[in-house]
Amino acid sequence: MRRILAGLVLLAALAGCSAGTLAGTVAGRGSAAPPVLCGGRAEPVTVVACVVADLDRAWSARIGRPVTIRVTVDPEPAEVDRGCRPFLAFGTAFYCPADDRAYLTAASVARDRAEFGDRLPYALAGILAHEAGHRVQAVVREPGLDRPGDAASRAVEQQADCLAGAWAAGAARRGLVDPAAFRAVYAREMEIVSSLKPPPGSGLEEYDEVATHGTPAERVAAYDRGAAGADPEAACALRRG
């Protein structure tokens, strides 16, 4: 998840559409029962469509404005605005303000499939919940989104983590996800993404995920603030510009 241009960072959609829970721990591929988010479907495109629908509904109702999230899975370079295209090489998910669309790369999906196995829907939902947080920031015109510097970027990113936690808590109350299992997957995803380095020749050699987003512990702490707060706007200090 990263800032692109001077605008937002990762943003994408997700949420659970079908009730169900995941019991037990989910630290790795083989532990406990499989998740049943989105009816137990594992196809990334299906999961994304399912969670996007829930995120749109949940955040639109919460902030009183339409929140429309558009996501492309496994984009071709020609589909991405030229200014955002270098982030395809990073192999994660990102939001491009130039075309108001989130992109989930094939490398990201493959990496999470190998890491989480049948828990892939929770991993995709965690990534997308963070991205949806960026969309919420854009819709409410959160002040400071264009502020330069790593410290400002970390504030924006961790607010999106907080909003991801707020959505996850609401999804858990609706019976869509198991909160402890979802948090465990989210925490592991933060560790994975924080360890990634841009490949040589990508034009992103100076990019630093931790500098721009915070440490995994800081990001999970932000997630926890959102998950524990009764009011997402207060818990995540969401302001309206």
Automatic annotation (TrEMBL):
UniProt-listed InterPro entries: Membr_lipoprot_lipid_attach_CS (IPR012640), Uncharacterised_pept_Zn_put (IPR007343)
Gene Ontology CC entries for this record: membrane
Name the record gives this protein: Metalloprotease
Primary location group: membrane
Pfam family, one: LPAM_1
Membrane topology: Single-pass membrane protein
Domain of life: Bacteria
Signal peptide as annotated in the record: 1-23
Compartment(s) where it occurs, according to its Swiss-Prot or TrEMBL record: Membrane
Keywords: Membrane, Signal, Transmembrane, Transmembrane helix
Keyword Signal: yes
